[in-house]
């Protein structure tokens, strides 16, 4: 299939790599041109503009930083919606507020094209291996149209409602996870005096109710971080979690919901970022807290 990927950040690049390996004809574009090189070497066509990505593709995927990035990519000069757009299907996968996806759908529909949102759980490794978890929002017809490609990227695609529903689910799922990294730092501080080897600690926690699913994948990285080796390359950074937490709080407010724990978690992440670990991997929030001595 002719697939466009506009935005080659960590996730966009991993998704493009996977789709190329599966034999799709992939056209890419990225604001920072240097990031297109590895994909071009792997066989992707590099478009001169986002509009050209649309013109070259049947289906276009985006996974970008935030609402401002989506606006620039779709509605900016030579943006995706300036290409040969009629009848095309857009799959927007960023972690943003549902209203961002709903407003984008209006813009897409006004141009005679179709859109679903499908944010994903999982990080760079699962994206490369086709093991993400997708949360799709859109009409039955549009989700069915995207499904063959989504099934190649995800181990499971959940159709959770109309456009925007995927974004709502993704924010909800990331909330306890984001709070967890700080909570786990506080938990590990309690057992630090025991002097247990970090790898052993991860193994124990993973097998208890104090360890969520994520520990099975990220426990080894955290064990290394606790012994002074931060994860490299970074898969999901602290500043991106701050963006997610701010987005959750905005969404909660718009629904008339109080979010005391989420707000406190954001303060902890802000403090960690001020301490210089904004670009570091999420597990560094936990490691920083354990090693923070009064
Ligand atoms: N990393 C993960 O593990 C993970 C997992 C699931 C979901 N997510 C979500 O997926 C999205 C992307 O995450 P990521 O980790 O791949 O982020 P990233 O590596 O920082 O990449 C962000 C992408 O957005 C582009 N971008 C930002 N502002 C732009 C603008 N104004 N105009 C055009 N392009 C712009 C960047 O272009 P440049 O390269 O030019 O900066 C880059 O291609 C986020 O919403 C994140 O919350 C991430």
Q: What structural category do the secondary elements indicate?
A: alpha/beta
Mean pLDDT: 97
Q: Percentage of helical residues? A: 40-55%
Q: Stretches where pLDDT falls below 50 for ≥5 residues?
A: none
The rough form would be described as: globular
> From the structure provided, what is the oligomeric state, counting identical versus distinct chains?
single chain
Count of DSSP strands = 9
Strand order of the largest sheet: 3-2-1-4-5-6
Bound small molecules, by name, code or SMILES, are: NADP nicotinamide-adenine-dinucleotide phosphate
Strand content: 5-15%
Estimated radius of gyration: 20 Å
| Main pleated sheet | 6 strands, parallel
Listing every helix as H and every strand as E from the N terminus to the C terminus, the arrangement reads: EHEHEHEHEHEEHEHEHHHHHH
**Terminus-to-terminus distance:** 57 Å
Number of helices: 13
Explain what the structure shows.
The protein is 54% helix and 14% strand. With 294 residues, it is α/β, with parallel strands linked by helices. The mean pLDDT is 97. The strands form two sheets. Strands 3-2-1-4-5-6 form a six-stranded parallel β-sheet, sandwiched between helices. Helix 9 runs antiparallel to helix 10 (214-226) and helix 10 crosses helix 13. Helix 4 (67-75) links the parallel strand 4 and strand 5 (89-92).
